[in-house]
Amino acid sequence: AQSVTQLDSQVPVFEEAPVELRCNYSSSVSVYLFWYVQYPNQGLQLLLKYLSGSTLVKGINGFEAEFNKSQTSFHLRKPSVHISDTAEYFCAVSPSGYSTLTFGKGTMLLVSP
Amino acid sequence: DAMVIQNPRYQVTQFGKPVTLSCSQTLNHNVMYWYQQKSSQAPKLLFHYYDKDFNNEADTPDNFQSRRPNTSFCFLDIRSPGLGDAAMYLCATSRAGGQETQYFGPGTRLLVL
Question: Do the Cβ atoms of B98 and A98 come within 8 Å?
Answer without folding.
Answer: yes
